[in-house]
Amino acid sequence: MTLLSVDHVDARYGDFQALFDVSLAVREGETLAVIGANGAGKSTLLKTIAGLLRPARGEVTFNGQAVGALPAHRRVAMGISMAPEGRRLFPSLTVEDNLLVGAYSGRSGPWNVAAVCRLFPLVAERRSRLAARLSGGEQQAVAIGRALMSNPRLLLLDEVSLGLAPVVVEQLYAALPQIAASGTTVLLVEQDVRQALRVADRIQCLLEGRTVLEGTAGSLTREQIAAAYFGV
Amino acid sequence: MVVTNAFVQGILLGGLYALFACGLSLMFGVMRVVNLAHGDLSIMAAFGALALVDSLHLAPFVTLLIVVPAMAVLGYLVQRGVLQRSLHVSALAPLLVTFGISIILQNGLQEVFSADNRALNIGSLATASLRITNQLSVGWFSLLVFGVGVTVLVALQLFLSRTSTGRAMRATSDDQEAAQLMGIDNRHIYSLATAIAFATVSVAGIFLGMRTSFTPTAGPALLIFAFEAVIIGGLGSLWGTLLGGIALGVAQTVGAQVFSPAYGILTGHLVFLAVLALRPQGFLPKAVTV
């Protein structure tokens, strides 16, 4: 069953058009990775799905319902949750309070503070620390945990690897199979193609706001992906 | 002993100033809006109480039960209907809107109630006092106001730190877009913060009306006291606001005692300026600045 579909969406920031006729579908339970270079429109696509940006044209459908006109907070209540680019933790709140804010919508499910602490043991050690005092990797773990606290049906992950050491990125990605195993559908955006190929069932590549390649992770060759990624 | 007496009176007065200031601090903390109508709203509440006393012959304290909830509802509606629209325009727009509200309130109150000095009569409670030593006695009413002020600030602090809505308010204050991604309707949170601010400043205004006389144009002076309490204490910290209110109250009463009654308010202003010059972040600044 298709959980999310994005149909012929254009998105713009004022006069600048970031997405051109982009379509995408995610089935319940699968993991889709959207890859692309800087400025390809990946984050814009996630913002459009999360509700921070209204599409200029086209529709976003979630669980059979058109959500393109709904504000972000209403979409969280329906089961769309996002760990945004740059983590965006609440710096003056403790790690635990950050997680509890994530549960504001009150959706029930397997995720709570204890479950997030089991998923990311390093979060457990930092529970009472202010979010502003965390390292980048710790912040990213809290950001993912915070997004899970609303027990989403669809989890949007924006650039998990950005600015982090490779070893930390490995640790964070190691948690993804457990998240998928809890039944959560994952849509992730990533510049790091190697990571994306390892965790995703399907790949969709954006170039300058347009889809240039899509397919299952196993069916695409490195040459195909490189050509689509760089537009050569 | 005379100075000790002034000092104690100052602490008690500080409770009232803190009550005035906490709503100003909350609105600034959550929305970065400086509400220039804050003092006028307290005067409006005092006149509201006076109108109820005059027309329905209610006891002044009973009017709190009607005026405070009514002002909270008004706060919610003013935020949702007026202030919210100005937030996206520019940083200056909400300031101008609250300035406009201030002018409307002052002139509206003058139109309805005239420019006369008015007061809320609470009978013998106004003068009843508790004698501690031969030279030191404190008024029961001052004690009551101080107790209410501290209780309101403690309750507000607990609300912000312990409840889901309070946590959402702090999160919205840090990053309103990220807060929306957590399912928080930031407009609702803003309106709740404004409702709380209107309610607390109404309590302060009605107490002020019981303590002393007031006129429709008394608001701006109260706004300055509230500002000073917030800045002395440190922006964004309610404990700081309580401490700031007390520091301002003590400076005013001790200054009036030591120099001359005419210099009380001036002493308060000078202490405020000294804090700005020597410790501009205030006594208890927020641990993390966003």
Termini Cα gap of chain A: 35 Å
User: What would you say the CATH architecture of chain B is?
Assistant: Orthogonal Bundle
Query: Low-confidence parts of chain A lasting 5 or more residues at pLDDT below 50?
Result: none
Class based on secondary structure composition and strand pairing of chain A: alpha/beta
Radius of gyration of chain A: 17 Å
Tell me the number of strands of chain B.
2
CATH class of chain A: Alpha Beta
Outline of chain B: globular
How confident overall, as mean pLDDT of chain A? 94
What does this structure look like?
The complex is a heterodimer of chains A (232) and B (290). By secondary structure, chain A is α/β, with parallel strands linked by helices. Chain A has one domain: Rossmann fold (3-Layer(aba) Sandwich). In chain A, 34% of the residues lie in helices and 28% in strands. Chain A is built from 10 helices and 10 strands. Chain A has helices spanning 42-50, 72-78, 95-102, 113-119, 121-125, 136-148, 166-174, 176-181, 193-199, 222-230; strands at 2-13, 16-27, 31-35, 57-62, 65-66, 80-83, 154-158, 185-190, 202-207, 210-216. In chain A, strands 6-7-8-3-9-10 form a 6-stranded mixed sheet, with helices on both faces. In chain A, a hairpin with a 2-residue loop joins strand 4 and strand 5. The relative contact order of chain A is 0.19. With 290 residues, chain B is an all-alpha fold. Chain B has a single domain, classed as ABC transporter involved in vitamin B12 uptake, BtuC (Orthogonal Bundle), CATH 1.10.3470. Chain B has a two-stranded antiparallel sheet with strand order 1-2. In chain B, helix 5 (140-162) packs across helix 6. The longest helix of chain B has 30 residues, at 2-31. The mean pLDDT of chain B is 94.
